[in-house]
Design goal:
The complex is a heterodimer.
Chain A (H helix, E strand, L loop, with lengths): L10 E9 L16 E5 L3 E5 L6 H8 L6 E7 L2 E2 L5 H11 E4 L11 H12 L4 H10 L15 H13 L5 E5 L7 H18 L2 E6 L10 E4 L1
Parallel strand pairs in A: 3-8, 3-9, 6-7, 7-8
Antiparallel strand pairs in A: 1-2, 1-4, 4-5
Chain B lengths: L1 H7 L5 H33 L9 E6 L3 H6 L7 H9 L3 E6 L1 E2 L3 E8 L2 E8 L2 E2 L20 E7 H12 L15 E9 L2 E13 L9 H11 L9 E6 L5 H10 L1 E4 L2 H43 L1 H9 L4 H41 L9 H30 L4
Parallel strand pairs in B: 7-9
Antiparallel strand pairs in B: 1-10, 1-11, 2-10, 3-6, 4-5, 4-8, 8-9
Helix pairs in contact in B: 2-8, 2-10, 2-11, 8-11, 10-11
Classes of the chains: A alpha/beta, B alpha+beta.
């Protein structure tokens, strides 16, 4: 089995990674693609890009649901290309949390059920904590509302809470505030950073311009 | 698991599963019934006669119109027996001895008189009768005589008589219920004996008594009469030896053999059961396809949900489990209902079979239980693997 399973993932390294769709392009000016980019646990990163530069692609390589690239992605020096299914399951459950740009919530379930379906897997947060987050994000009255009936902005907040009900070494937030007002963006940023600090985790936020106002330690241009 | 199930049961088509359920039920039932029936009934044809080894053959002379008119009798002369004994294929030869006197017998069951008749006994040398010597013996002067009855008697009794007179049916275990009273007179003597029925034979169409009784009684009641045997019993090294048939044909002898018939019947029985079971299997396989199609359809319709579950950290095993449990549960339900129905169907036909062949073992549903479990495991394992492969393809983002 994996040797990092019991430990934490300290670094995620992109070594000369290039999505196959960009293989033909020679005008690529990126700080991640075809470069050596390292993300460290406990630090805060912003990955900024225009649309179509591969932000979601970048995320999908980190959590391992796409592998259409050349180069290597390393977790603590271990090439993720060698990961087995069980390794990725473990990585997704315990090491890398991902807030999907397309959210990937379940419209048939209520907001609370959407959180619990993940929390039951990890058993990480109390129902009280979850409700607290709902209240802080101004959707405390939506606990039992079906996701399908909620606005995209509200869904984004639910998706953020779901991303937090698991242990992680890195949290990957793919355009987390695209449909939020400034106030809610700020609250969401606070909640995420508080949780990340508590876990000592690294934070990677992607954005196409509008991003959560945080003290980013390093900004990568895709 | 509850929430996952709540999510994944979306798009389950009840009519499809009902269709599968009944198709599989019929298939399973036909297969199990065919197999169970075969196992229940086959012993009727394959069981060996417990009183006579299977490789003994009974030889008689052919009775044709010619002998009847010419008055030549069909008994074996001593020279003919010697000749038979001298043949290479012969291991041993025994004569059937008949009673030379008159016998009146009354047969009753449980005190009710069933049969009164004048009849005769036969005997063969004890070495040809496969019964412990302690049961098959007669001491001259004793009033108890062991008897082996032809099985046809008991079939006749069970079917024709017992039913209409509300008498118990007789099976091998209940021979003690038969009273067999024998009255013999001859040579100025009269005597009554008690027949002790120790069993039934399907290979001998005669009432058999121990040789010792025969010798003593013939001597006592008819000392002056003697007739040649009309039937011989013999053991051959290899019953399939063609020299045996050739010799018998040349001499005009006939072999009493019900064994061949039984083999034919068993063969046809097996063929029919195989055909029925094949139909059942085909239905089962088709129903398996229905199930697989509906599961595939279900997985397809829910593929985005399945993918999302995988992406938030569920393992393919977790995600496959609800569908695997669903299929296994359906299969299990089918199996249990099939067993249940089979139980009643079997009760019904065993009633008839046991009336026909009372000595038949009750048997058990074990063959159907084992076959059912085997089928269930086979189908379930195929289902489990198929569902898992489907989920794995979603993991690999190929669907």
């Amino acid at each position: 089995m994996l040797n990092f399973l019991d430990n934490t993932v300290e670094t995620i390294q992109f070594d000369n990674v290039l999505p196959q769709v960009f293989a033909q392009r020679d005008d690529l000016e990126s700080q991640i693609w075809k470069q050596d980019a390292v993300f460290k646990k406990g630090h805060l990163y912003l990955v900024e890009a225009d649309s179509g530069k591969g932000k979601s692609t970048f995320c999908s390589y980190v959590v391992g649901y796409r592998h259409d690239y050349t180069g290597h992605v390393y977790f603590d020096g271990r090439d993720t290309a060698t990961f087995k299914v069980a390794d990725w399951v473990e990585a997704r459950q315990r090491h890398v949390s991902h807030l999907f740009q397309e959210l990937r919530l379940f419209p048939e379930l209520t907001a609370m059920e959407n959180i619990q379906i993940k929390n039951k897997l990890t058993g990480f947060k109390s129902e009280k904590q979850i409700k607290e987050w709902f209240d802080m994000l101004g959707i405390g009255d939506k606990l039992d509302a079906k996701i399908g009936r909620m606005s995209f902005g509200q869904q984004q907040r639910v998706a953020m809470i779901r991303a937090l009900v698991q242990p992680f070494d890195f949290i990957l937030a793919d355009e987390p505030i695209s449909h939020l007002d400034d106030n809610n963006s700020r609250i969401m940023g606070e909640i995420m950073m508080t949780e990340a600090k508590a876990q000592g985790a690294g934070v990677i936020v992607t954005s196409i311009g509008k991003h959560i106002d945080l003290n980013y330690e390093k900004t990568y241009w895709l | 698991m509850n929430l996952v199930w709540k999510l994944l049961r979306q798009h389950i088509s009840i009519p499809q599963f009902i269709g599968f359920f009944f198709a599989n039920l019929f298939g399973m039932l036909i297969v199990l019934l065919g197999y169970q029936f075969y196992r229940d009934v086959a012993p009727v044809f394959t069981s060996e006669d417990s009183f006579m080894k299977a490789d003994y053959i009974i030889v008689s002379k052919k009775i044709g119109t010619a002998n009847t008119i010419s008055g030549r009798d069909n008994s074996f002369e001593a020279s003919e027996i010697d000749d038979l004994e001298d043949q290479k294929f012969t291991t041993k030869v025994g004569k059937f001895t008949s009673t030379e006197y008159k016998v009146d017998a009354h047969m009753g069951v449980n005190g009710t008189n069933v049969l009164n008749s004048e009849l005769f006994f036969e005997s063969v040398p004890d070495e040809f009768v496969d019964v412990p010597l302690s049961q098959w013996k007669y001491t001259p002067g004793s009033h108890e005589v062991p008897i082996i009855l032809p099985r046809t008697y008991i079939t006749m009794y069970n079917f024709g008589f017992a039913q209409s007179h509300s008498l118990p049916k007789i099976s091998d275990g209940l021979v003690g219920m038969i009273n067999f009273d024998i009255f013999i007179q001859g040579n100025g003597h009269k005597a009554g004996f008690k027949g002790k029925v120790i069993g039934f034979s399907s290979r001998l169409n005669t009432i058999l008594v121990p040789q010792a009784f025969m010798d003593w009684s013939n001597n006592f009641f008819a000392p002056n009469d003697h007739s040649d045997p009309t039937r011989l019993i013999m053991e051959v090294g290899n019953p399939a030896d063609e020299n045996v048939t050739k010799y018998f044909d040349k001499k005009g002898y006939e072999v009493e053999d019900d064994k061949l018939d039984a083999e034919k019947t068993t063969y046809f029985l097996r063929m029919m059961v195989t055909m029925v079971m094949t139909v059942g299997l085909v239905i089962s396989i088709l129903s398996f396809y229905i199930l697989m199609l509906s599961i595939y359809l279900l997985v397809q319709k829910n593929s985005s949900k399945l993918e999302n579950l995988l992406l938030i950290g569920y393992s393919p095993r977790d995600v496959a489990k609800p569908y695997q449990l669903l299929t296994v549960g359906l299969n299990l339900g089918v199996l249990i209902i099939a067993w249940f129905i089979l139980y009643f169907v079997r009760m019904y036909y065993m009633d008839i079979v046991e009336t026909l062949f009372p000595d038949l073992d009750d048997g058990s549903m074990l063959p159907a239980l084992i076959m059912g479990v085997a089928l269930f495991l086979l189908v379930s394992i195929c289902n489990i693997i198929a569902v898992r492969r489907k989920i794995d393809r979603i993991w690999q983002r190929k669907e």
